[in-house]
Write a structure and sequence with these properties.
Layout (H helix, E strand, L loop, with lengths): L1 E11 L12 H9 L3 E6 L2 E2 L16 E2 L3 H6 L5 E3 L9 H14 L4 E2 L1 E2 L2 H5 L2 E4 L4 E8 L20 E2 L4 E7 L1 H14 L3 H8 L10 E4 L2 E5 L5 E6 L1 H17 L2 E7 L3 E2 L2 E5 L1 H13 L3 E5 L7 E4 L2 E4 L4 E4 L9 H5 L9 H9 L14 E10 L2 E11 L13 E2 L4 H10 L7 E3 L2 E4 L6
Helix pairs in contact: 7-8
Length: 435
């Protein structure tokens, strides 16, 4: 017997599904419900102002009525991630309120919890043929949103499961010298110097130099940027995968990540590629990525699959009901402005930003089948989020027969040596071909 999976990217839902659905809804729902395991990323907090707006957000302060969880479920999903850059938009109270509303509905989710142990723990979905585990983690977040572990004297902190990393900028001798000169002139490192002298910070090696929050290394090789995984976060995840592999038949890892290479948002950062492969090595079957709101390539690795980003599924950011004062004042508006004013200003009347970016408004739903622990088939179903519709209806998904998004994904996947065959407006990946 086999188990069928389907997954989507970001679900930023602010509007109910119409009573009688909408064009393409029934077809989409039937597709999703044809799978045993049906995953989406909840890029939203769900509560009725049960948390306080955080000082910083993931962009838009993401809060939706708890009843929107019921609307998400109308699409047929039964497995959810809550670790992303919006998890902490309403502080620890918002985290716990969202968890409360998820549990009231008996929804299976991973990625956040009342402490780090709970946030990092796998959740388990029971299906007819397999028990499936999901671990949720994110590399994109405000530091205040990170879950904390308890000490001997204090309880842990509610929040998300973090994947931290460090960026090193490797520069040649000349640039290293210039960096030091600029630091001395600007006095940007004075506080760090005093903390190091007082013993609160450890001295850095001679070939490493800070510049404010940045860290530079001297190199004799080609100048480049390097991203390095936080070993504690990596090890915690690997151990949880190994435990989940003992307790379930199939393990999934969900990774929410915005980080990219150079100026190309579609290319995942170095540390994300390393992390995803280590997850497969530890026993995960598939790594499901999202975060940049657009597609990234697909990589076959060992016997597993890595979807570096599935883009958007529901993207209704423009019709969020409430925003805090900072959302308006950060855009040069008065604190008593309306949400419509904010959206008009941010998009310059719909001419820039996400609303004008074509790749934001189309994506795929990958469906794959696992038999005896092996992925036997992969089919990619394109979806359209109706960019051409007005704000009031934009962002709701429907199936599409356009092959443009599949051609884009095929081009993105060439970097990973993954071939995508396009036939009858669907994409196919042969898992039997050499990897």
């Amino acid at each position: 017997m086999s188990t069928k999976f389907i997954a989507s990217g970001d679900c930023f839902i602010t509007r109910a599904v119409p009573e009688n659905g909408y064009s393409g809804f029934t077809e989409l729902k039937s597709l999703i419900e044809s799978a045993d395991v049906r995953f989406t990323n909840l890029e939203m907090t769900f509560h009725d102002q049960e948390g306080y707006p955080a000082a910083a957000s993931g962009g838009t302060w993401a809060m939706s009525d708890p009843r929107m969880l019921d609307e998400v479920c109308k699409y047929g999903f039964n497995l959810f991630n809550t670790a992303n850059n919006h998890s902490g938009d309403f502080g620890q109270e918002g985290v716990m309120a969202t968890i409360k509303h998820l549990k009231e509905r008996n929804l299976v989710f991973a990625g956040s919890g009342k402490n780090l142990r709970e946030a990092a723990r796998a959740c388990y979905l029971e299906t007819g043929e397999a028990r499936v585990a999901l671990i949720g983690i994110t590399s994109t977040f405000d530091p205040a949103a990170v879950a904390g572990g308890p000490s001997l004297d204090l309880i842990g902190r509610p929040g998300l499961n973090p994947l931290r990393f460090k960026t090193y900028h490797h520069v040649n001798d000349e640039h290293f010298r210039m960096l030091k000169e600029l630091a001395e002139i600007s006095e940007i490192n004075n506080l760090r110097t005093l903390k190091t002298q007082a013993g609160y910070l450890a001295p850095l090696p001679d070939d490493t130099y800070p510049f404010g929050k940045l860290t530079f290394k001297r190199t004799e090789k080609k100048e480049h940027n390097e991203t390095v995984l936080n070993q504690a976060d990596l090890e915690r995840t690997i151990q949880e995968i190994k435990e989940a592999k003992r307790q379930a038949d199939i393990v999934l890892v969900n990774l929410h990540a915005h980080e990219f290479l150079g100026l190309d948002m579609a290319r995942p950062a170095e540390f994300l590629r390393i992390f995803a492969k280590k997850c497969i090595d530890a026993g995960a079957s598939v790594v499901i990525g999202h975060g940049p709101h657009e597609l990234r390539g697909i990589e076959k690795y060992s016997d597993g699959l890595i979807f570096y980003s599935l883009g958007n599924f529901i993207f209704q950011t423009e019709t969020v009901e409430r925003q805090p004062a900072e959302a308006f004042t950060n855009m040069g508006l008065s604190a008593d402005s309306q949400v419509g004013d904010l959206m008009d200003k941010r998009s310059d009347g719909g001419t820039r930003g996400f609303v004008a970016q074509k790749t934001i408004w189309s994506s795929i739903l990958p469906m794959w089948e696992v038999k005896d622990g092996k992925i036997t088939s992969v089919v990619l179903h394109p979806i359209d989020l109706q960019q051409q519709e007005p704000r009031s209806r934009r962002g709701s998904p429907r199936p599409t027969k356009s092959e443009e998004i599949l051609l884009q994904l095929r081009a993105l996947s060439k970097e990973f040596n993954t071939e995508i065959r396009i036939q009858d407006s669907k994409g196919y990946i042969d898992m039997n071909e050499s990897k």
